[in-house]
Amino acid sequence: LLFQILGAVILGFGIWILADKTSFIAVLQMSSPSLKTGAYILIGVGALTMLMGFLGCLGAVNEIRCLLGLYFTCLMVILITQVAAGLVIYFQKEMLKEELSHIVENLIETYDPLNDDERNLQDAWDYVQTQIACCGWTGAKDWENNEILINRSMTAYPCSCSNSSKDFQVENGFCNLDVPVNSTATYADWPVHEQGCMDGVEKWLKDNLGVILGVCTGVAVIELLGMILSISLCKNIHSEDYTKVPKS
């Protein structure tokens, strides 16, 4: 039962990554094929874990060694895959960070409130800037590369970046800067947050690193415990009795 619950959690996490449209995960999964692939892998691992939990229960109750052996093998494969994935993420973190920077910078450059085709992605990024209280990826200067703001001589700024109380009710699109007509401005003139979202995301990860590592460690311990119990039960069953297999 415990492994079926664990499988359901992993399955649900994968589905959440694909379905979420209002957080930083949405920005990644709509722009990065690798995250979509990872979400599908999580869904597959979750479904497999639930199936293995059922087979493990069936093997233990009916003392069927082949099912217990299959249960042990699948758990071992899942555990090795998780460890390998963790190592890949750790050693490729700079590459992943670079890919993420490219995704966000491209989003900022092409941001257009009138573009309905990219509305979900842009709303997700506005949500990130509002919730983290940040602007751009490395800072507000990133928005100086936006085509619409360039055409408007930087006399507008992204509303979701604003630190002004009058803009708190506006969470997307561009807000006009109070300057004379035909004037020009720079990002330094905008009433926006100074912190870039990269720093905000890194801070969030650092603040929650203990929880993330704790969950990953807990999952690994549960899987290892399941492997030990299954192999112990398998050794204690001296002979195979296929008459115990439930008849369909």
UniProtKB/TrEMBL annotation:
Keywords: Membrane, Transmembrane, Transmembrane helix. CDD domains: CD37_CD82_like_LEL (cd03160). It holds the Pfam family Tetraspanin. The chain crosses the membrane at residues 6-28, 40-61, 67-91, 211-233. It is a multi-pass membrane protein. InterPro entries: Tetraspanin/Peripherin (IPR018499), Tetraspanin_animals (IPR000301), Tetraspanin_CS (IPR018503), Tetraspanin_EC2_sf (IPR008952). It is found in: Membrane. GO terms for cellular component: plasma membrane. SUPFAM superfamilies: Tetraspanin (SSF48652). Belongs to the tetraspanin (TM4SF) family. PANTHER family: CD82 ANTIGEN (PTHR19282:SF44), TETRASPANIN (PTHR19282). This is Tetraspanin. It comes from Cariama cristata.
